[in-house]
């Protein structure tokens, strides 16, 4: 009967543990997709279409991306003269760019894209709001905001035993190198 020697088993254990940890910390996290439309109260002949893709989960210390695509459909003869303003509000998360993003609305065929980089620095679930408004400026230079959407979103930030994923990846890499050297 052959005996298993620890000198042969330990490198394989280190190697397999390193690969498992590396796989767990780099596996893609779930992304949520949502589509809807809204009509401006000030000009009901114009309909806006929106598509949002955002991370349902983030790893602590790593950035995720939220992408809002906005288009405009003319239902009548009128044309929008305003700008679409989008803003994400999540307490405890860092956004780039921070604050509102304002652009002219795209068309149905050529929609505009709003993009945010989102980073969490503490584990847990965070609830926030996506605000979309139509901002129009009258002849006197006074801006008028017409709220189109207030959508509630939830993001869950995870860590591995309270340790950021990048540090855990380094540990996995060290385990793999040790296994290869042994």
Question: What are the salient characteristics of this protein?
Answer:
six-stranded mixed β-sheet, five-stranded mixed β-sheet, single chain, 182 residues, alpha+beta, elongated
Order of helices and strands: HEEEEEEEEEEEH
- Outline the low-pLDDT stretches: none
* Coarse morphology: elongated
The oligomeric state of the chains shown is: single chain
Strand content: over 45%
Number of helical regions: 2
Helix content estimate: 10-25%
Mean pLDDT: 82
Please describe the biggest sheet, giving its number of strands, its sense, and whether it closes into a barrel: 6 strands, mixed
Total beta strands: 11
Radius of gyration: 24 Å
Q: CA-to-CA gap between the ends?
A: 25 Å
Structural class: alpha+beta
Overview in brief:
With 182 residues, the chain is α+β, with helices and mostly antiparallel strands. It has helices at residues 6-26, 165-181, and strands at residues 31-39, 46-55, 57-59, 63-74, 83-89, 93-96, 100-103, 106-107, 112-120, 124-137, 143-158. Strands 1, 2, 4, 6, 8 and 9 form a 6-stranded mixed beta sheet that branches. A 5-stranded mixed beta sheet has the order 3-11-10-5-7, with no helix packed on it.
Write the topology of this structure.
Layout: H1 6-26, E1 31-39, E2 46-55, E3 57-59, E4 63-74, E5 83-89, E6 93-96, E7 100-103, E8 106-107, E9 112-120, E10 124-137, E11 143-158, H2 165-181
Helix pairs in contact: 1-2
């Amino acid at each position: 009967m052959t005996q298993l020697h620890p000198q042969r088993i330990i490198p394989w254990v280190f190697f397999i543990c390193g690969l498992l940890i590396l796989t767990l910390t780099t596996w893609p996290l779930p992304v949520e997709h949502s589509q809807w439309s809204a009509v401006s109260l000030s000009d009901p002949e114009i309909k806006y279409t929106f598509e949002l893709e955002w991370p349902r989960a983030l790893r602590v210390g790593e950035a995720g991306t939220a992408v809002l695509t906005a288009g405009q459909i003319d239902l009548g003869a009128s044309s929008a003269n305003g700008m679409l303003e989008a803003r994400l509000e999540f307490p405890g998360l860092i956004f780039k760019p921070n604050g509102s993003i304002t652009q002219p609305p795209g068309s149905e065929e050529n929609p505009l894209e709003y993009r945010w980089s989102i980073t969490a620095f503490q584990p847990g679930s965070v609830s926030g709001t996506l605000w979309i408004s139509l901002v129009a400026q009258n002849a006197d230079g006074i801006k008028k905001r017409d709220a189109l959407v207030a959508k509630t979103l939830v993001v869950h930030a995870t860590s591995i035993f309270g340790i950021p994923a990048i540090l855990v990846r380094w540990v996995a890499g060290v385990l793999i190198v040790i296994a290869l050297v042994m």
